[in-house]
Design a protein that fits this description.
Elements (H helix, E strand, L loop, with lengths): L1 E8 L4 E7 L1 H6 L5 E5 L7 E9 L4 E7 L3 H7 L6 E2 L1 E6 L11 E7 L3 H13 L3 E8 L8 H7 L2 E6 L6 E2 L2 H10 L6 E5 L2 H11 L6 E4 L15 E4 L2 E4 H4 L2 E3 L5 H8 L3 H12 L1
Parallel strand pairs: 8-9, 8-12, 9-10, 10-11, 12-13
Antiparallel strand pairs: 1-2, 1-6, 2-5, 3-4, 3-7, 4-5, 13-16, 14-15
Helix pairs in contact: 5-6
The structure holds FE2/S2 (inorganic) cluster.
FE2/S2 (inorganic) cluster binds next to loops.
Organism: Zhenhengia yiwuensis
Keywords: 2Fe-2S, FAD, Flavoprotein, Iron, Iron-sulfur, Metal-binding
Cofactor: [2Fe-2S] cluster; FAD
């Protein structure tokens, strides 16, 4: 059993939990994820790791309350336990100081997995600018954390309540127009956002890594649920990713697959909570 040692509301839909999970905390690296079950027999929820503390043996996760299982997770409080917390899963992000200037782009809860990558790059002496986006200022999470690890921090919100009014690509285009040069872009967020970022960076040949978050079941490469097409080949996000070369990802297929079970997800929400 895995004890919840801290819990924080980041906005009315997004929460952070710190879990005592010694094995995961000892081994995990930026870019990896865990799969948790709230109670025995529950749906398995894959979540990327937002932070970890090897001394305290804790792992931080951030989740958006979108369905039955995340609503159930949100009902848990400090002192309660989770039945399963398996990981670290997936391939760690390739982060090294051969890159001199990196731009991180995080949309919504995509800021959570972006954070440990930028933190690690900054620790290695890489200069990192960051753009965080959300529908309004309340949806732009981890602002203080990113302030501490980024060279310059920019914001984009749909309603203009924080930073530039528009999308993260609005800011990206502005920075590039001003002559900013980046050796790599790391974009993590909703599929349409990552696709839009790649549509800017690909013609300019700025290497762009994205993190895929498809439907996952086992998380070990056995079920095929998380398959994505990358460079014309089938890859499994849970064992080959979740990071992939954004230039090679078939985003349209990924978006079709992501919406495949929307009806069933709504049905189970209504059935169990309604
Ligand atoms: Fe089953 Fe990746 S989650 S193969």
């Amino acid at each position: 059993m895995y004890k919840i040692v801290a819990k924080q509301k980041l906005n009315h839909l997004v929460e952070k939990m710190v879990i005592h999970a010694p094995f995961v905390a000892r081994k995990c690296m930026p870019g990896q994820f865990i799969i948790l079950c709230v109670e025995e027999g529950d749906e398995r929820i894959p979540l990327t790791i937002q932070d970890y503390d090897r001394e305290k043996e804790t792992v931080s996760i951030i989740y958006q309350i979108v369905g039955y299982s995340t609503q159930k997770l949100a009902q848990k409080e400090v002192g309660d336990t989770l039945a399963h917390f398996a990981g670290p899963l997936g391939v760690a992000s390739v982060l090294h100081n051969s890159k001199r200037r990196v731009l991180g782009i995080g949309g919504g809860v995509g800021a959570a997995p972006l954070y440990p990558q930028i933190k690690e790059l900054q620790a290695q002496g890489v200069s990192c600018d960051v753009i965080l986006g959300g529908r309004d200022k309340d949806y732009v999470i981890l602002q203080d954390e990113f302030k501490a690890v980024s060279n310059e921090l920019f914001f984009a919100t749909d309603d203009g309540s924080l930073g530039t009014k528009g999308f993260v690509t609005t800011v990206l285009n502005e920075l590039l127009a001003k002559g900013r040069q980046y050796d790599e872009v790391i974009a993590i967020g909703p599929l349409p956002m990552m696709k839009a970022v790649v549509s800017v960076t690909k013609p300019l040949n700025i290497p762009t890594m994205v993190s895929m978050n498809p439907i996952m079941i086992d998380g070990t490469g056995m079920c095929g649920g998380c398959r994505v097409t990358v460079g014309g080949q089938t890859k499994f996000a849970c064992v080959d990713g979740p990071d992939f070369d954004g230039f090679e990802v078939d985003f349209d297929e990924a978006m079709r697959r992501q919406s495949m079970y929307k009806k069933q997800e709504q049905h189970i929400c209504n059935l169990k909570l309604g």
